[in-house]
Design brief:
The chain is an alpha/beta fold. The chain is built from 7 helices and 10 strands. A hairpin with a 5-residue loop joins strand 7 and strand 8. The longest helix is centred in the middle third of the chain and has 18 residues.
Length: 231
């Protein structure tokens, strides 16, 4: 199976092509960026596909991170995945950013629980907790940093995500300390691809996964009659 993986959810823009039969990435590229995903993504995808020496019609599916994350970044990645899937007549699957973060740690086969955490601003984080074997302990949610730390009752965890350091710096001294702290700007695109290969297209659509309403809201336009009165 050939998978095109895309991630623009946070402060990175990444794309990769995975060949599951060979068990390897044919090509990948990743750039750290807070803004500019819309301008960077499509040229990056073109370069990755060229490097993999593949036409889009050769793909079996497209995988994309769907959140939590930046409202603007998510729209860029999901729109690209949907558009390419439509053009190539292939399914597009969506993977949560939290699961992609966790997958890289679970794949190491360690026993420690894994807390994936993303900065939600205003002293809050998006987070989830999974056991070392990947089974879910705490479902994805948004909470204050203190609430997220208090929710961990499963032993010394492995912290991962762009908010891993935020949790580590506030971690109480009188409880088991994190076994590792992986502060990553974005999830490993390799694992986005592998999760995409394992996903059920009918159960994991490429649509935004929000744990709270986005901060960015469209401006409300006045009715024409009101505009005439105020103009």
């Amino acid at each position: 199976m050939l998978i095109l993986a895309i991630d623009t959810a946070l402060e990175a823009c990444a794309a990769a092509v995975l060949d599951t039969d060979a068990g390897e990435l044919l090509a990948q590229e990743s750039l750290l960026m807070k803004r500019g995903h819309a301008e960077a993504l499509m040229p990056m995808i073109a370069r990755v596909m060229q490097s993999a020496n593949l036409a889009f019609m050769a793909l079996d599916r497209i995988a994309v991170t769907v959140g939590p994350g930046s409202f603007t970044g998510l729209r860029v990645g999901i729109s690209a995945a949907r558009g390419l899937a439509l053009a190539a007549k292939r399914p597009a699957v969506g993977l949560t950013t939290l699961s992609a973060y966790a997958a890289a740690i679970v794949g190491q086969g360690r026993a420690a629980p894994v807390i994936s955490a993303i900065d939600a601003r205003h002293d809050h984080v998006y987070f989830q907790i999974v056991a070392g074997d990947g089974s879910q302990l705490v479902r994805p949610k948004v909470a204050s940093v203190d609430e997220a730390i208090a929710a961990s009752e499963f032993g010394a965890p492995h912290l991962v995500g762009n908010a891993a350091k935020i949790l580590a710096e506030r971690w109480p001294k009188d409880v088991p300390q994190p076994v590792a702290v992986d502060a990553q700007a974005g999830p490993d695109i390799t694992w986005v691809a592998w999760l995409g290969a394992a996903a059920d297209p009918d159960a994991t659509p490429a649509r935004p996964f929000y744990l709270r309403a986005p901060d960015a809201k469209p401006a409300v336009q006045k009715p024409l009659a009101a505009q005439a009165v105020t103009s």
